[in-house]
Amino acid sequence: MTVAKIVFASATGNTEGISEILEDAFKALDVDVERIEADDADEDSFEDADICVVATYTDGDGEIPFDLEDFFDELPDQELEGKVFGVVGSGDSELYPDYFCQAAIDFDEAFAKTGAKKGAEVVKIENAADDEDEEVLKAFVKALTEA
């Protein structure tokens, strides 16, 4: 069975909600899925995963959230050949137009250094996911499972 792991960081609950939508979408496609909160993520989090997903918000002026900094720093050194990855970001383009979902973009670039295959483009969500975003997230999960 295909295994997906979702590492997520959430300050306001928006990204946690997104990770739950992703989890449900994977389950609907008969994928074994596990969500891992940022505080519990480490360099081995994706070791037994076929599909690797990071869902993150962007902190301050485009920074990686504090509880994901170590994970982010260690990610490029991981050997994830044969695995598929995808990244989802939530942000506020009104408050942070110059840094909208910057952490997600940074994670996408870090994943590219691991040898993993990019299964879908970065999904950027304005604050909390709405019904339209949920459909985008379902398509994102479908692309990852088909990659």
Automatic annotation (TrEMBL):
Presence of keyword Flavoprotein: yes
One annotated GO molecular function is:
FMN binding
Q: Which cofactor does it need?
A: FMN
- One short Pfam name that applies is Flavodoxin_1
Entry-linked SUPFAM superfamilies: Flavoproteins
Keywords, sorted A to Z = Electron transport, Flavoprotein, FMN, Transport
Flavodoxin-like domain boundaries = 4-145
PANTHER family assigned: FLAVODOXIN 1 (PTHR42809:SF1), FLAVODOXIN 2 (PTHR42809)
Query: Which protein family is named in the record?
Result: Belongs to the flavodoxin family.
| Function comment | Low-potential electron donor to a number of redox enzymes.
Specify the protein name: Flavodoxin
Q: Supply the source organism for this entry.
A: Enterococcus asini ATCC 700915
